[in-house]
Design a protein that fits this description.
71% of the residues lie in helices and 3% in strands. By secondary structure, the chain is mainly α. Keywords: Cell membrane, G-protein coupled receptor, Membrane, Olfaction, Receptor, Sensory transduction, Transducer, Transmembrane, Transmembrane helix.
Length: 311
């Protein structure tokens, strides 16, 4: 990537309109960050340590937990660093890295939710062929594909943003380097690039969402054909956690990137929810309604001496 810029570092101004709230925000965000890492690590340990959970659905959930640990780690450490009273400066390379890894992990999760919907579609609509269709090889290809296409999308968006010259102001009116705020600092006309970026950022999630919608439309039709009420309840219960996580993932994307008139404070608030709160909630969403995960989690917590052994 060619750097034609004279700017060597940027200054992160943080969340708009939160002056004199640094200490409170530091404690709050640090708590969210720790709970996010701990929750997803426990889900990961619960799945890896339990042989009955070594199935395609939980394999993809493992990858989601890994993404949910790394995703907030793109922006949170630097944000916590300057909220604790340290420098707000970030190097040019650091800014490029933040933007790339934010979109790489975000796009990977977007593709992963699509793959997880396909997995549920096959499990419910073609149960007798499930193990053949979702073989170990197929799961490995799908999991690798989510990261591969996420990397392509992130590389395109990062190159699009930092091919521009940055030769004047270097104050980023946000808590991390993202496309909308970086384009405002460029010393060139960005209208064409904004349109290309808008289409790219909008088209990819929309395509994934339509595929998810198609999968779940077929799933609902299949569930309604199940004669027993208990069978329908189990099928809906299996999919409800995934649908909840999808809604929590897609709502911030629409509010941040697809609104015609962006609002810095609104964007920052929604972004915080997207970066810290949603990854923190995912372990709860996938464990509270899942007896197998809850049972495995109890075993992990007993082994770690966090819970007393039940008699």
């Amino acid at each position: 990537m060619r750097n034609a810029s004279v700017v060597t570092e940027f200054i992160l101004l943080g969340i708009p309109h939160t002056e004199d709230l640094e200490t409170m925000l530091f404690v709050l965000f640090l708590s969210f960050y720790i709970f996010t890492l701990m929750g997803n690590l426990l889900i990961l340990l619960a799945i890896v340590s339990s042989a009955p959970l070594h199935t395609p659905m939980y394999f993809f959930l493992c990858k989601l937990s890994v993404c949910d640990m790394f995703f907030p780690s793109v922006s949170s450490p630097k944000m916590l660093f300057y909220l604790s009273g340290n420098s707000r400066a970030i190097s040019y390379a650091g800014c490029v890295s933040q933007l790339f890894f934010y979109h790489f992990l975000g796009c990977t999760e977007c593709f992963l939710y699509t793959v997880m919907a396909y997995d549920r579609f096959v499990a419910i609509c073609y149960p007798l062929r499930y193990t053949i269709i979702m073989s170990h090889r197929a799961c490995a290809i799908l999991a690798t594909g989510t990261s591969f296409f996420g990397c392509i999308q992130a590389t395109f968006l990062t190159t699009l943003t930092f091919q521009l010259p940055y030769c004047g102001p270097n104050e980023v009116d946000y808590f991390f380097c993202d496309i909308p705020v970086m384009l405002k600092l460029a010393c060139a006309d960005t209208s064409a690039l904004e349109m290309v970026g808008f289409i790219s950022v909008g088209l990819m999630p929309l395509s994934c969402f339509l595929l998810i919608l198609t999968s779940y439309s077929r799933i609902v039709c299949s569930i309604l054909q199940i004669r027993s009420a208990d069978g329908r309840k189990r099928a809906f219960s299996t999919c409800s956690a995934h649908l909840t996580a999808i809604l929590l993932f897609y709502m911030p994307v629409v509010l941040i990137y697809l609104r015609p008139t962006p609002s810095p404070w609104m964007d920052a608030t929604v972004q915080i929810l997207n970066n810290l709160v949603t990854p923190m909630l995912n372990p709860l969403i996938y464990s509270l309604r899942n007896k197998e995960v809850k049972s495995s989690l109890r075993k992990v917590l007993y082994q770690l001496d966090i819970l007393p052994e039940q008699r």
